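> forwarded from #structure-qc
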């Protein structure tokens, strides 16, 4: 199924039914008086979040939604039937924006949240409501009010605890398939992943977290280069980034004798690392402040040369910390092989601990408990 993460729709609530003009006429009751009933209310358009949905696919085929109108009032004070509400279901993580102003109208962050997008018009009052002691035979009634009409943009942003970012072909899809039960398309060419993938990671016997594999970024992504900013929005909600670097160049180049070759490889790592961070900052500056863990992937073939790996890790660790300006996680940059699974379990443990720490800090903050300057797990 094609992944659709944006759609434009038009919604109209039902108009209210008009009130009735009627007079009671029965044998032996010559002055029965007005008995027109009220019109029914128009139906509302309601949007609800549903956990079982993962895409805005349905809105490719239907873009206009019209709620039923209220029915006319009738004689004998009979009110018209209300128009039925219509329910539009969207995935959790959908943001509703006004099509003209781009104002965020509602953000669905939990399952079964509801929002009345368009309110139906009220039914008009029948002529029986307008009688007075001096005006006992009104021959008019209220028309029903018009229902609201609105055009909106639906924008889906994935909800995940961890977002895996990095250049194309860094091994993101392989890593998420190793960490979770997700089975994305995997191949040895760039832009294999054309849609974000979500996976649930079992961190402990009864604890899980959600990881998202974000399609590869390249320089200029914030302007639409490569896959562009089409998927950058899907990492705005993540608690933590795994910044994946392809370590095959270390295998190919750094095995040559001399430190100059190793330094050249580290420079290439840093170039790619800074390029991704630049794209994140240009898209949304707040992304530069999201906690991240740097991971070197595809180093299973260098297990026989641990000294080289340690030298690379030490050099890379120093450069990354100076760029990021925050203390590193213990063991960062992590060295893994997503193919063999080497080092992945330690990475999962660290991710899980940091997610729990962030949730605990958030819970304390919402309870009004002051926090220390830094509660993060650091060396």
């Amino acid at each position: 199924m094609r992944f659709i993460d944006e759609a434009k729709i038009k919604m109209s609530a039902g108009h209210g039914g008009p009130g009735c003009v009627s007079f009671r006429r029965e044998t032996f009751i010559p002055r029965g008086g007005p008995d027109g009933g009220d019109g029914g209310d128009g139906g509302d358009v309601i949007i609800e979040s549903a956990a079982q949905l993962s895409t805005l696919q349905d809105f490719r085929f239907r873009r206009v939604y019209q709620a039923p109108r209220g029915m006319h009032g009738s004689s004998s004070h009979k009110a018209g039937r209300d128009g039925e509400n219509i329910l539009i279901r969207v995935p959790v993580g959908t943001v509703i924006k006004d099509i003209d102003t781009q104002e965020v109208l509602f953000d669905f962050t939990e399952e079964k949240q509801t929002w009345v997008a368009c309110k139906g018009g009220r039914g008009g009052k029948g002529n029986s409501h307008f009688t007075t002691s001096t005006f006992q035979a009104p021959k008019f009634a209220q028309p029903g009010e018009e229902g609201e009409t609105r055009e909106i943009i639906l924008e889906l942003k994935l909800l995940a605890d961890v977002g895996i970012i990095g250049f194309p072909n860094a091994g993101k899809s392989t890593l998420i398939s190793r960490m979770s039960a997700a089975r994305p398309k995997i191949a040895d060419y760039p832009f294999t992943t054309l849609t974000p993938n979500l996976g649930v990671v079992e961190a402990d016997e009864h604890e899980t977290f959600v990881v998202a594999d974000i399609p590869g970024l390249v320089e200029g992504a914030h302007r639409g280069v490569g896959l562009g900013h089409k998927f950058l929005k899907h990492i705005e909600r993540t608690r933590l980034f795994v910044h994946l670097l392809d370590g095959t160049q270390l295998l190919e180049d750094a095995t040559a004798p001399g430190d100059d070759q190793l330094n050249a490889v580290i420079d290439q790592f840093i170039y790619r690392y800074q390029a991704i961070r630049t794209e994140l900052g240009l898209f949304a500056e707040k992304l530069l402040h999201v906690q991240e863990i740097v991971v070197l992937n595809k180093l299973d073939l260098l297990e026989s040369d641990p000294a080289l790996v340690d030298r690379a890790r030490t050099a890379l660790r120093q450069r990354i910390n100076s760029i990021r300006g925050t203390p590193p996680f213990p063991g960062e940059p992590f060295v893994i092989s997503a193919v063999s699974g080497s080092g992945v379990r330690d990475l999962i443990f660290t991710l899980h601990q940091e997610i729990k720490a962030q949730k605990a800090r958030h819970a304390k903050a919402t309870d009004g408990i002051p926090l220390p300057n830094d509660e993060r797990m650091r060396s």
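QC bot note: Residues 1-156 form a domain with the Spo0b-associated Gtp-binding Protein; Chain: A, fold (CATH 2.70.210.12). The radius of gyration is 30 Å.
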